[in-house]
Automatic annotation (TrEMBL):
Residues 463-549 bind DNA. The lineage of its organism: Eukaryota, Metazoa, Chordata, Craniata, Vertebrata. Residues 1-41, 269-296, 388-420 are annotated as: Disordered. Residues 1-19, 269-281, 388-401 have a biased composition (Polar residues). Residues 402-416 have a biased composition (Low complexity). This is Forkhead box P1. It is found in: Nucleus. The gene is FOXP1. The keyword Cytoplasm does not apply. One of its GO terms (molecular function) is zinc ion binding. It comes from Equus caballus. Keywords: DNA-binding, Metal-binding, Nucleus, Repressor, Transcription, Transcription regulation, Zinc, Zinc-finger.
DNA sequence: GGTTCCGTAAACACGC
DNA sequence: AGCGTGTTTACGGAAC
């Protein structure tokens, strides 16, 4: 029990640590670092949200300036054709993709949303107002961007026909890219703000609200042609990257923008971040939308059926599926509710998975000593190093080589070992357990083996995965005099294992049988009675049970041997 | 399918 | 006679 609980504590600790780290990640990304437990942090939260608000306004201003500059440049440049006009769409499409990339909630965010705490109505109101302001900004930016895109498109068309100097065009492109970066930064800030809102319970408390922040973003879903364009563009940019222009793709994986250092934008230009024409934004929504490449792996489409939870509408091809998806599963209250339900399902599954992972980790940790220690046959197995078993433990060696001649170093895997240790209830019902691993794998048990699970076996009625012979040997070797009477052996069993507090007649008889059958157990008589010792060399020798050839009981001989 | 290991039950003996 | 201890045998399940 101690082992198990200890492991659980450790696992829980790591889990908590992981969770907190994830939370810290979000906290670092977002502007809100709230201490929600006291339930009275609206001022702090609002202040942090305001900070994000200011940052977004700054970004918006920068974007506007860039846009103005670009417009001026366009006016100056007039109709000039570029040498490499094929590059122009490249600078539009990626940002278009990024601009319209829907917000996708990661599983971590799901958990946080689901585990959120309730805010006060005042908090909600403030946050909602902020959110609405942000959405207005977002729409404003989108309008700017659309206009800019239209102008650029027009310009490009004109340039393609008239021919232009590439220098100015590159400047335009650079300006546009910078502008797009600002847009992305804006979007990321908004996303962080959304996450903050979600974490504060806004989305759950106000079921209608998620549609508010998500709506404009989801409306800008990536058209297929944009994907195709982006694909072509990135492939064209790959060649250009060697010239030092690394503005070809936007690495959105690091969308965390520090509130304290907004200049350290996360818009890291990473020319290698994209593969196969895909932005390195690992959002399920994006992947689902890039159906040109993944039309057969859409998570919501399979076997001609829409896999939206509860839908199962038949879609003959992927295009019809997309139509169906956009029409029947648009972003509305119903879809949002279904998504929330699915989030809960995922959360439950993740929790279950986390528990099972913890369990597996505990099993692995528990078995780590024996499974990872070198067990080369010629090497003494010094995994015990027990204080009370200096001799026997340090000299532990294969004890039944004929049984496992080819696997002297076979590790004890959880597969073979786990059930007998973990399944407390099943252990009691499956009946006698044969092949205790201590014998099977030629590893005598030790005080360390038992000590690791001492509390567990003391309290849980779990049959220890050791043979009677191993346990008897252990009991004897643990004693100060390396000798025990039969009754003391009984007491050791009952003291160390809850399992042996029942059915005494059975296991006591087994002990007596084993003491008699095993050559390694030597009965010694003195003036006070008789006691049992263990010949550990004999124990480690291999077959220590003589069945086919019953040994002749000869206490005098044994005594002489012991004395000698 | 045979062998081996192991647990279990039982019979038996011996001494107190 | 009853009990504890010790020995031996038989049987069956599981693993090899």
């Amino acid at each position: 029990m101690m082992q198990e609980s200890g492991t659980e504590t450790k696992s829980n600790g790591s889990a908590i640590q992981n969770g907190s780290s994830g939370g810290n990640h979000l906290l670092e990304c977002g502007s809100l670092r709230e201490g929600r437990s006291n339930g009275e942090a609206p001022a702090v939260d609002v202040g942090a949200a305001d900070l994000a608000h200011v940052q977004q306004q700054q970004a918006l201003q920068v974007a506007r300036q860039l846009l103005l500059q670009q417009q001026q440049q366009q006016q100056v440049s007039g109709l000039k054709s570029p040498k490499r006009n094929d590059k122009q769409p490249a600078l539009q499409v990626p940002v278009s993709v990024a601009m319209m990339t829907p917000q996708v909630i990661t599983p971590q965010q799901m958990q946080q949303i689901l585990q959120q705490q309730v805010l006060s109505p005042q908090q909600l109101q403030v946050l909602l107002q902020q959110q609405q302001a942000l959405m207005l900004q977002q729409q404003q930016l989108q309008e700017f961007y659309k206009k800019q895109q239209e102008q650029l498109q027009l310009q490009l068309l004109q340039q393609q026909h008239a021919g232009k100097q590439p220098k100015e065009q590159q400047q335009v492109a650079t300006q546009q890219l910078a502008f797009q970066q600002q847009l992305l930064q804006m979007q990321q800030l908004q996303q962080q703000h959304l996450l903050s809102l979600q974490r504060q319970g806004l989305l759950t408390i106000q079921p209608g609200q998620p549609a508010l922040p998500l709506q404009p973003l989801a409306q800008g879903m990536i058209p297929a042609e944009l994907q195709q364009l982006w694909k072509e563009v990135t492939s064209a940019h790959t060649a250009e990257e060697t010239t030092g222009n690394n503005h070809s793709s936007l690495d959105l994986t690091t969308t965390c923008v520090s509130s304290s250092a907004p200049s350290k934008t996360s818009l890291i230009m990473n020319p290698h971040a994209s593969t196969n024409g895909q932005l390195s934004v690992h959002t399920p929504k994006r992947e689902s939308l890039s159906h040109e490449e993944h039309s057969h792996s859409h998570p919501l489409y399979g076997h001609g059926v829409c896999k939206w939870p509860g839908c199962e509408a038949v879609c003959e091809d992927f295009q019809s599926f997309l139509k169906h998806l956009n029409s029947e599963h648009a972003l509305d209250d119903r879809s949002t509710a279904q998504c929330r339900v699915q989030m809960q399902v995922v959360q439950q599954l993740e929790l279950q998975l986390a528990k099972d992972k913890e369990r597996l980790q505990a099993m692995m940790t528990h078995l780590h000593v024996k499974s990872t220690e070198p067990k080369a046959a010629p090497q003494p197995l010094n995994l015990v190093s027990s204080v009370t078993l200096s001799k026997s433990a340090s000299e532990a060696s294969p004890q039944s080589l004929p049984h496992t001649p080819t696997t002297p170093t076979a590790p004890i895997t959880p597969v073979t070992q786990g059930p007998s240790v973990i399944t407390t209830t099943s252990m009691h019902t499956v009946g006698p357990i044969r092949r205790r691993y201590s014998d099977k794998y030629n590893v005598p048990i030790s005080s360390a083996d038992i000590a690791q699970n001492q509390e567990f076996y003391k309290n849980a009625e779990v049959r220890p995965p050791f043979t009677y012979a191993s346990l008897i040997r252990q009991a004897i070797l643990e004693s100060p005099e390396k000798q025990l009477t039969l009754n003391e052996i009984y007491n050791w069993f009952t003291r160390m294992f809850a399992y042996f507090r029942r059915n005494a007649a059975t296991w006591k008889g087994a002990i007596r049988t084993n003491l008699s059958l095993h050559k390694c157990f030597i009965r010694v008589e003195d003036e006070f009675g008789s006691f049992w010792t263990v010949d550990d060399e004999e124990f480690k020798r291999g077959r220590h049970i003589q069945r086919g050839r019953p040994r002749k009981y000869c206490p005098d001989e044994n005594f002489d041997e012991l004395v000698a």
